[in-house]
Design a protein that fits this description.
Elements (H helix, E strand, L loop, with lengths): L10 E10 L6 E11 L4 E5 L6 H8 L7 E6 L2 E2 L4 H7 E4 L11 H11 L4 H14 L15 H12 L6 E5 L7 H16 L3 E6 L2 H7 L2 E6 L2 E6 L1 H8 L3 E6 L4 H8 L5 E2 L6 E4 L7 H10 L4 E7 L3 H9 L13
Helix pairs in contact: 3-4, 8-11
Amino acid sequence: MTSPPVQGAPIVVQGLVRHFGSGDNLVTAVDGVDLVVEQGEIFGFLGPNGAGKSTIVRMLTTLLKPTAGHARVAGYDIVKQADLVRRSIGVALQDSAIDPLMTGTELLELQAVLYGIPRAKMHERANTLLERVGLIAAADRRVITYSGGMRRRLDLALSLIHEPTVLFLDEPTTGLDPMSRLTLWEEVRRLNREGTTVFLTTQYLEEADQLADRVAIIDHGRIVRQGVPKELKAKVGAPTLVINVSAHQTELARGVLARFGDMRPTDEGSLAVGLVAGATGVAEVVRALDEARIDLHHLELNEPSLDDVFAEATGHRLEGATPTETK
């Protein structure tokens, strides 16, 4: 194992760019990203599919070379010192391949060999990690028999075998049931309490809100907002009032709502406004809609969420956001 030099923040990104294709087919997946992740924090990287999240992770973990820009991870340059970066980080990618015919113990011990961990410590380390992620009872079962949640927890254990200083988790809970998601969250929190810096990409608003000390929101390859979730939400200001009316009354209702605040992006079939007066203004809005003879089918008032931050920055909602995730 390699102990990285202590040289400031464990992740420093400056002007990172990544192109795919050329000529008329040139696609800019990452467009001049600047980031700093501080020691010992959970940094949430939030954005929709195709926004550039996974491309950035692949560059920071040396799986993909940047077209332009610079980055240092665990104190090492991701291009010039790629091998030292790889020895200092743990990586659990969304599409990582795990041999389904091997057992959990076999995979962890193989990973230990690859990192040069002495045989005397190999079995002990594997057992410790299997116990930590709740897989000790399945240690000698072939991975093909594991559920999706079990595989993601095994992948997390594999990324920790060499005790990395920085851990990259690329959408670790995608496709997991709620209980498996909560279990993984708790393990991430525990790792962080023990000093591991975590770089977490996700498209789940609740996940970023629950876990991250700071977040960066990316859209079309560019960072559109960065900061502490609570502070970002506070800057949005007014809560969002969402209503549903009959389709033929939509424009009339829009005109009524616009008197009470700025209109905000929302799902098709709904209207949303940043209600300046807050909860006390709901009755006045309902009265105004009634006076305009607008049939109100549904109404809800939501406190500012990370989805509101995303919408305010980009003009559209984060795909897949649900009321459960935008509390």
